[in-house]
Amino acid sequence: MRRLELDRSRWTTPPFYAFVILVIACGSIPKGYDEGGYSASVRLDSFKTDFNLLESNWTNDETGLANRTANITSFNVLGAALGALISLDLNDRLGRLRSWRLACVVWMSGTFIQVFASGIYGLLLFARIWAGLGAGALTVATPLYLSEIAPTRTRGLIVSIYMVVLLTVLALGFFINYGAKVHMSPTRIQYRLVQSIPLIPVGIAFGASFVIPETPRYLISQYRLDQGRNVLARLRGTDISSPEIEDEFNLITTQTRLRADTLSSASNWTALKETQTNPNYRQRFWLLIAMQTISQWTGGNGITYYVSTIFESAGVTGNATSLISSGAYGIVKLVFTMAFTWGLIDYIGRRRCALLGLTLQLAAHVYLACYMGVLRPVDDSKPINEPASNAAIASIFIYAVGWSVGLCTIPYLYGTEIFPTRIRNVSYAVSMSLHWFFQFAVVRVTPNMFVSLHDWGAYLFWAIICFVGLIVLGIWMPETKGVDIERMGELFEGPWYLRWRARVQPKEGERVGP
């Protein structure tokens, strides 16, 4: 009977532990709402009027309007790139929880300024960058905190809650804009209400963070052992003297000491040089860089930020209807990202997910390029080819599926598992900073690409990147499913062009890999 109770206890979540996860996971709201709610609010008539984005005012300067729109949308991402880099140092100096709180304060203050910028273009751009600093720092601090409080057996599930909350908020943002569009008059109050809504849940989470503890792993790394043990017991909902707590505490302590010994003589610069002087490390480093580059330049975030405009180009009539379609797009991303993180990634593997996702993205881009260049009416006086338009709309959703099961999440996971402890932090930091700067570049140039390349050229460009990605990753990317982190080096031995068939030979009595 006692054995049965212990087995059941492994699958129950202590209420306080669930509360901590929910509070910290709210750190994904700034990024999610910016990609959904804020990006859609830029298309509200009230916002366009206040910040001179009405097309009638730019009749002879379509490129100027595209530049102004792109600046407003993308400057938050530029700030996030800098915030992610700054956070890497703050997380060790201040701790995970204090860094998370500081990032929330920076983001909330920047958001407050941008909500009340009142048509002042320069002030809005400053506020976007300032809020982005906080949003970017949260993208580092939030997953780090969640990974450090989770037991090993559920770490992937707990950390993936970050993406689930992010995509839920992203989808809700479009529906919030729809409600404001339909039920509110186009005054400043309309867009101010839409843009200030995320301040409520983040503000509540910030207040609640003062009753939750620092992570046990950080406390133990700072030699606050008794405090770390107490926090661990509280999170697990059990007595401090229980065997389970003792075993996990000893494991964390051993890992922390091993990491300290491994990194004691290695500065960040030394570790970075080692990634280039060691041939095995160099292959891993540049594979991750290639993966980040391909993932961003397939157009994923460009489409997400401007999906309302893209739906209208594909034949969705009316701004309100395009917002509903954009919300549906966000829901599709959420559902398939959940399927990916909670099933596909460990069932069919990282490599197959990446190649499947790129194939779906390529197919969607090819059709959208054909529709925009050949099948779409040249002017509004001609009727829409409804079957072709419906197929274009379906292609956008197919793209969402491909992006969600592929390169939307895989670079995050791959970057944390293919490197040894000695170079993991610096390698992952470099890849994430590149991720953010590329995302800024994509979001910034997408409106200009639509103008200068007449829509269809942008999709053709993204299709070419998808095709190149299929070849590069198809040859270079080994499967890491089921491979211990300590044995990743075996996958990268020998010529890079043989990575596609690399396998780790199982030890006696052990099953490794897919």
TrEMBL record:
Q: Which GO terms describe its cellular component?
A: membrane
What are the alphabetically sorted keywords of the record?
Answer: Membrane, Transmembrane, Transmembrane helix, Transport
* Coiled-coil segments: none
A Pfam family this chain is assigned to: Sugar_tr
The family database entries (PROSITE patterns) matched by this protein are listed as:
MFS (PS50850), PROKAR_LIPOPROTEIN (PS51257)
Which molecular-function annotations from GO does this UniProt entry contain?
A: carbohydrate:proton symporter activity
Q: How does it sit in the membrane?
A: Multi-pass membrane protein
UniProt-recorded name of the protein: Major facilitator superfamily (MFS) profile domain-containing protein
Query: Where does it primarily localize?
Result: membrane
Which residue ranges traverse the bilayer? Answer: 102-123, 129-146, 158-180, 192-212, 285-307, 327-348, 355-374, 394-414, 426-447, 459-478
Superkingdom of the source species: Eukaryota
Query: Which PANTHER family does the record associate with it?
Result: PLASTIDIC GLUCOSE TRANSPORTER 4 (PTHR48022), QUINATE TRANSPORTER, PUTATIVE (AFU_ORTHOLOGUE AFUA_1G16230)-RELATED (PTHR48022:SF43)
